[in-house]
Amino acid sequence: MICKINPARFEVGQGHLVSVSEKWIDRELSIHEEYAIYAIGVYNGVTKILIDPSNNGRPVWYSLNHFVISDSVLTNGWEMFYNDEADWSLIIGYNKLVRSEDHFNGILERNEMDLKKFAEFESGNSGDMA
Q1: Which of 31, 39, 76, 84 is most buried by a 10 A CB count?
Q2: What is the pTM of this model?
Q3: Closest CA to 77 of 20, 124, 25, 24
């Protein structure tokens, strides 16, 4: 899956984007780029996507409403987790992210080992990351 910025949701600042609705600033996103989506999740009712805007192995969860999907073909081998009682009620993505709560939390908490595993996955050197 591929996405790009929804320009209606942003104002362009000096070298950064400012979310019109939420007033946050992002210095990594660009209106003119497309971004690979590494996972989709629902956190407390908000649909989010996991992208790596700088392609540096440090992915970030963003609200999907700031993007438009430019290629909706799902990545082969994605898996799904669902628990309507959890804060993250739905996660669809590469299997290590879905199967390992430790890896999922490691990505959220910026754990260097988990970010390294993500970077290996992102570069295609880790198979399915089982």
Answers
A1: 39
A2: 0.82
A3: 124
HSE-CB for 105 with a 13 A CA cutoff: 4
Token pair recorded at residue 34: 């497309």
Angstrom distance (rounded) from CA 57 to CA 111 = 12
- 102 is a domain residue: yes
In a domain, 117, yes or no: yes
Q: Name the residue among 121, 6, 115, 125 with its Cα closest to residue 75.
A: 121
Amino acid at 117: K
* Inter-residue contact 36 to 51 (CB < 8 Å): yes
